[in-house]
Amino acid sequence: MRLITHYYLSITLAYSIALAAWPIFKRKGRIGAIGSWIAAGLVMLCPALIPADQVMGRALVAVVCGDPFFKMIDCSRRCRMIEGVRLGAYVRFLIPFPALLVVFGERNRVPGARVSVGFEIARIAGGASVALLCAVAVIAGKIDVRSSFALDHAVKLIVFVGLIESVSQVLHGLERLAGYGTTPIIRFCFVSRTPAEFWQRYNTRVHLWFDKNVFTPWGGRRAPVAGVIAVFFVSAVFHELAFGLATSRLDGYQFAFFMLQAPAVLISPSLERFARRTGVVGDAAVRITTVFWMYATSILFFHGVNRIFPFVYANDRSSP
Q1: Exposed, middle or buried by CB within 10 Å (0-12, 13-18, 19+), for 102?
Q2: What pLDDT score does 11 carry?
Q3: Residues 205-255: tens digit of each pLDDT
Q4: Structure pTM?
Q5: Which terminus of the chain is less hemmed in, N or C, by CB atoms within 10 Å?
Q6: What sign does the CA torsion over 12, 307, 250, 167 have?
Q7: Contact, 209 vs 74, CB < 8 A?
Q8: 180 forms bridges with which residues in the sheet?
Q9: Is the sign of the CA dihedral 68, 91, 110, 172 positive or negative?
Q10: Looking at the predicted structure, is the pLDDT value of residue 320 above 50?
């Protein structure tokens, strides 16, 4: 019961800070921007109210707190650069459904939109079934049947992709039934030809947040190199701190993983041109290179995942 109280208090405090920060958004210039980032940072510290030994609980609450964190920064940007936001609109914006719609104005219902109820129910049922199979595969994977870390990591990566894609479909189906004209959070990232395409398909909603709040302010199309580096730097810091808060340890693995993606994204246009010039063979080579790159670098990412969910790897002795 006491643990449930910790969860309740941490999430309640996060949203209380988000609401209390609304007047800060009206401030122009650096004061408003710095104040918004400080307030958003306090939101991300709320999982610390949960006992440190509850690693999974802290991680779950950190995910929940990420939603108001992103929304506060975006709302502040909109107030400073476009137009003011009324308190009522901001409160509605903070509602965490649809999931991860963290750019103001994207949370739109589509009245009268044509939705096939049967199709969406089938989408939800299919996604839930795949997610259940992936969960069973993770649990069953604790049986030491995978003899090498390389095989263990490959199996785990396939299961992870299946899990996030299926959960994305479940959420999308629920959102469509509720009348929202959304697109899936994860949009078949496993078909990506280049690392850049992978990150465009992976978490499309937060991708839009990064485009408006980091990439464009740091140069955008005029200075894409600076913009891309800034995007992955912010993402690296965010993930490193979030995983560090959950595990009570900063080890740099998350930071390294996301910063390594920046050069891969920057060379993706060259990979695209190579694939187009060389036809089927070149296209296949680029896709295989992308798969290998994500496989190799994701070892860094799953180092933190394995700390939160210690049953992820069957071959624990080989984990990094």
Answers
A1: buried
A2: 94
A3: 999 999 999 999 888 888 999 999 999 999 999 999 999 999 998 899 999
A4: 0.88
A5: N
A6: negative
A7: yes
A8: 109
A9: positive
A10: no
Which single residue is written with the structure tokens 């929304």? 71
Residue whose entry in the numeric block shows the structure tokens 């650096």: 30
What is the rounded CA–CA span in Å between residue 103 and residue 220?
17
In angstroms, the CA 285 to CA 118 distance is 40
Greatest alpha-carbon span in the chain: 63
- Distance CA(188)–CA(309), nearest Å, equals 24
Tokens encoding 279:
């036809």
